[in-house]
Hints:
Number of helices: 7
CATH architecture: Beta Barrel
Mean pLDDT: 87
Largest sheet: 22 strands, antiparallel, barrel
Shape: globular
CATH superfamily: TonB-dependent receptor, beta-barrel domain
Radius of gyration: 26 Å
CATH class: Mainly Beta
Strand content: over 45%
Structural class: mainly beta
Number of strands: 38
Number of domains: 1
Amino acid sequence: MERRFTRCAPIIIASFLLVTGHGWSQKSFDADSLGVMLSQWHALPEASVAAVGLGAGARGIDEVPGALHVIRPAELERYAYTDPLRVLQSVSGVNIQEEDGFGLRPNIGLRGSGSDRSGRITLMEDGVLIAPAPYTAPAAYYFPSIARMSSIEILKGSSQIAFGPQTAGGAINMVSANLDTEKTLHSARFRTESSSFGGYLQHLKMTTGWGGKQGNWGMLIEGLQFGSSGFKRLPTGRPTGFSKMDGLLKLRWSSLPVKGRPQSFQIKWGYAEEDSHETYAGLTHNDFQIDPYQRYGASELDRMIAGHEQRTIRHELEVNRRWKLQTDAYLNTFQRNWYKLDGVRDSVGDRHSLLSIYDEELTHLLKEETPTGWEILMKANNRSYESKGIQHRGTVTFDESSSQLIYGLRFHIDEVDRFEWRDGYQLGNLGMVLNDPGEKGLAGNRLDGARAFSAFIRSTLNIGPLTLTPGLRTEQMRFHRYDYGKTDLQRSNEPTIRTNEVQVWLPGVGVNFALGEVHHFFAGVHRGFIPPGSSPGTRPESSMNIELGYRWGTSRWSGQMVGFRNEYQDLLGSDLTANGGTGSGEMFNGGSARTWGIELECAAELLPNQSKLAMPLRLSYTYTRARFTSDFVSDWDAWNQVSDGDFLPYLAPHQGSIQWSVVSDKSALEFNGRYASAMRTKAGQERIADSDATDVSALLDVVFRREFNSKIESYIGVNNVFNSATIVAMRPAGLRPNMPRLVRIGVNLSL
């Protein structure tokens, strides 16, 4: 009863405030709407200028080689999303493939790079690699909670000199709450929300600061928990939702300006837990038509339990007026066991994978009583990850022309420990019953790891209205695998060892030409790279990435147009269960491919002469055309028999968004519409058949916000207003739906 009241509390509070708030003093939303829209691609967040993020070392957008997009704090607060895919879908050039409806394990790509588990882009939090094992296993089975981020930076395309190891498409950096010891005051903020399907959220953030003889201290404590009972249904009524807990602690000391060279130390500790009842088993076409939100009985025990811990120590030093340094030492650990439906074993002992169950039309085994002699197989994908290293970055300004040099070094080690097994079950009227416990380690018993040294140097040369940003990056990597196999479950003998060493040099250059204060033309070219893993016969993927763009901006009208073209050689695929593979994690080469496209973004104020009412509008559109440029054969089902000219799967050719607001000094009504064309699920050139394509997706979210004073704000939002039920994926196996209509209501309190 107490928990039920906790979940209903924000509904009661917000409803009271929305009804009775007319007498409160008001604070204008104006700056948080138009200002955000007009600044996203023209202004760097403070954290980036301070060398935390993707614009590190840059003093303006003209010094950022590539198309940088910043989602600032006010933009994140407008819609109050917890799903990272909903946040990123408004950014042009970002490719999204939904999976679970909540965004727990997002599939994100940039400019046609491929979206499988976000493993082909570089993911960071506060400028530190955050994927579970960025070199060995970059698939994002852990993704930071968007709800606790203060801003998000997306760098697409040219001159990925400063960020790696994945440099084919771009990088995403999530910036957590900033702790500024010079401005830190005692403050606290609390957000609570309730939503459909038993959804709940509580988010508390507190900061404090104090002075000392040698410097100032600041501390930030943040706690977040959210979850849902789930919008899918099992025959036994078991849960299909999730719960997440996320905690963060920052402690920072900065020297006084009069005490020698300015410097600071910061300790960051974060911990996250997840308990989710997600499955890789989708539906057949017939079952999807009957009820897109049903789940098969054989998936009722599917569950992931995971924990992530991050520790970072950062030192910043201003050696002199022209030389600034930043050094990070970091250690991230991630443990997870995703216990999920893996296939069936027939009466003669042959195993049928989850994907083959659908191909062989055996899905009746997933919802009916198990035949005599058959077993439902559940696999414990039990893995531990560790990622650690030290990185250093410096910025040197040379002369009065403001030309400068940015350099960086990183030594990194990561490892994945697989110790997996399969259990046999019988499905009956009462659900799943354990029949044959498997021996731990028989389904996977190995260690994969990598040691890497990377370095980059990038200069900024200002020549009147022209800014050049040439650079060079190198990656030196040694991958290894220690495979203990099925006969050494205690790991007491020498394993089978394989290694692979790779060294690459990645040049690039960006150009920006400013035509006055309003118009900017930019271009860039760089060599991209994807690491190949430990198999000696697997070649690293390389690419040549080119972009040409134009951006303009006034106080009321702003926009950006970019054309891009990427040529890929020795394409790399990864054998993940998430993309319909066997789950071995092996990297394999395909042929070559080419992607090209156009990105358009603009923002404007539709009522520029009104003092009491604002109506900002922001539009984005992306056209992407991606084709293979060679013939090859692959065991991966999505590629299979590839011919020159085949279109790449899981890439929407057309996608766009519209964000429109009606803002007064008392309230704001926000509309967020998104569109994506159908995606083919297998490579090919012919017209997409319904059986091999996702649906066209057109969704609208609406949020109404009301701010009563500087300390209290309430909101009510509806996601998927028209309750559209669409097919968003056909992998790993079967059809998967989007989230149905969801109503949420919440309150923000500043103390």
